[in-house]
Design brief:
alpha+beta, 15 strands, 9 helices
Length: about 270
């Protein structure tokens, strides 16, 4: 059952990515609006999500669907699909080829399937609970780094929490000999962590559609993920701290000292 859902999600993410690419190649015709601080949406986001929802409803009509652009559609099966049709919209609308399609599936409070597809690079990161993590069919593992000075840590930024969060964590990371990385797509940075390209990632708040697939990828690739209440994060988002086993403790310590309490920040 899980393998079937994973295969479906992978095919759908690639199909959605092809539609996203069509829009990416004709950016001058896109209608773009601003939802909030550093938070953009285009017709591409909406139409790609519509495609994903249509295909999900066709194949899994009793499942719930939660998407960034169109909210929640409640189902009765106990399964919930979560999608971000284009993660990295700010990159997308300015022609920067760092964006992805994210699809995850949750059952009884557990993320069972995660797919992050980068249409430009033709890279598809996939994971199913208990079955490992893969990039284009080849198994991936997190970094073997045991020092912040050996590798880069992805740092996320959002407009929902304290402005000082990102500034504080970058300062703390650099002061401990680390290097920060940001490409404005939290989904891709989580996938890069699973593949060992980054040694970890931290963000003071991420929405479910941005982080659940990536956190499963990292777990299945042998990484460490700060535990979350998945049912709560579906609707309220969560703080995300992940990393290779050798550096997770250091990254978590830096994050805890840098981020304002989430309740106060919201």
């Amino acid at each position: 059952m899980i393998s079937e859902r994973l295969a479906f999600a992978e095919r759908l993410a690639i199909q959605a990515g092809e539609l996203g690419l069509e829009y990416f190649r004709k950016l001058d015709t896109l209608t773009i609006t601003q939802k909030g601080h550093q938070d953009l949406v285009s017709e591409a986001d909406r139409n790609v999500e519509t495609l994903i929802r249509k295909e999900l409803a066709k194949s899994y009509p009793d499942d719930s669907i939660l998407g960034e652009e169109h909210g929640i559609e409640e189902g009765t099966s106990g399964y919930t699909w979560i999608t971000d049709p284009i993660d990295g919209t700010a990159n997308f609308v300015t022609g920067i080829p760092q964006w992805c399609v994210i699809i995850a599936c949750v059952h009884q409070g557990q993320v069972i399937v995660g797919v992050i597809h980068d249409p430009v690079a033709k890279e598809t990161f996939t994971a199913a609970a208990g079955q490992g993590a893969f990039l284009n069919g080849k198994q991936i593992k997190v970094s073997t780094s045991d020092s912040l000075s050996n590798g880069s840590v992805g740092v996320g930024f959002n407009g929902r929490t304290a402005i000082t969060d990102a500034v504080n964590i970058i300062g703390a990371l650099v002061s401990k000999g680390g290097v920060f990385f940001r490409n404005a797509s939290g989904g891709l940075m989580l996938a890069y962590t699973a593949a060992g390209r980054l040694i970890g990632y931290a963000e003071s708040h991420m929405n479910a559609w941005d982080c659940l697939a990536g956190m499963l990828l990292i777990k299945e690739a042998g990484g460490v993920v700060m535990e979350q209440d998945v049912n709560n994060s579906l609707y309220h988002g969560a703080r995300v701290v992940v990393g290779a086993p050798g550096v997770f403790g250091d990254i978590r310590e830096i994050a805890e000292s840098s981020f304002a309490p989430l309740e106060a920040a919201e």
